[in-house]
Amino acid sequence: MSVNLSKGQQISLSKSDGTALTSVRMGLGWQAAPRKGFLAKLTGTREIDLDASAVLFAAGQAADVVFFQHLVSDDGSVRHTGDNLTGGAGTGGDDEAVLVDLARVPAHIDQIVFTVNSFTGQTFAEVQNAFCRLVDETTGAELARYTLTGGGDHTAQIMAKVHRSGDGWQMKAIGAPATGRTFQDLLPAITPHL
């Protein structure tokens, strides 16, 4: 059963029987908001290129990153499924996804922060139906969903993070607006959430 997360809410990444999850997928989906006015009918729907990234942290320092130009972490535990340049049709499926093999994440990596940014510079006011969701990659069951709300003139969001907690992992919904076209631009905005 999926949990609809609110900003700041955390969930444990364990199965219903209490055992730890081994592999999860952080999916991102979105649509371009319809244009309004007379010119909208002439120009039609525009495309919006949002990019999902996963920044791996060790003791507060960025140690690796997975994004559309570096699809697999150096250790192979985190994989990006590829770049979607236009967004979806609003059907709720993932337009981009990052797969995390939690069992293979090196012991020194204590947090993985998921971000989304508009590479082409459109703001979130031009995006609708945006979400991130965490899926048990073994069973395909959706565990949690966070709606990226708020519109606004920001071009990025720090979506969520997974972090070590005792012997397992937890996910925290962050949903913090930021400005930047790439994950590098977002590093100063990520720091307060570590």
UniProtKB/TrEMBL annotation:
CDD domains, per the entry: TerD_like
Chain ranges of the TerD domain: 1-180
Stored Pfam families: TerD
Lineage: superkingdom: Bacteria
Name used for this protein in its record: TerD family protein
